[in-house]
Prior knowledge:
The protein is of the alpha+beta class. It has helices at 24-35, 54-57, 77-91, 160-183; strands spanning 11-18, 38-41, 45-46, 62-68, 93-95, 98-100, 103-110, 114-119, 127-130, 133-142, 146-149.
Amino acid sequence: MSKIKTPEKVIPFAGVLLSDISLLDEGKKSLESIFGPIDLQTRVIPFTHTSYYNSEMGEHIVRLWVRFSGMFDPEHLYKWKIESNHIEETWAHMEADISLRRINIDPGYVTEAKIVLASTKNFSHRIYLRSGIYAEVTLNYRRDRGWQFFDWTYPDYKEKTALDFFTLARNKLLSAKRSMSSQYP
């Protein structure tokens, strides 16, 4: 019989879409209230892969990813999505009785082998966690090939900016694991 093991700690991150760049600093402060300090941020890049968010956020949307300095248990992913949705609601504005987001936050985490994202939307490749939140493996890592995509991987998660960011996050995780193992011979 196999034994149940405690999962290894993960590096949390958030993918952020903004329609109002002036919200960036406040949005990051809100995220830090959930996750702790941000220790890495990508450059801000145009989000041009889809018009999916345009009706809600406008046409000039930008994208960035932020990584947090702490390491956490992956079981908290559903809570992170609920809390990030509260941040989105805080910054939303009403127009003709419709709530329009100005910030979209997709929390996730990095492990040695994969990138996992939280979502409120069900789909065939997503697994239900709890409280209306699902998880998906968005990228997986192979030592011989690097980051690998799936049919459902978002196009911006395939870009060099994202892949470099996730590689740095993975390297931080590996370094932390090496440091912990050297402390306990």
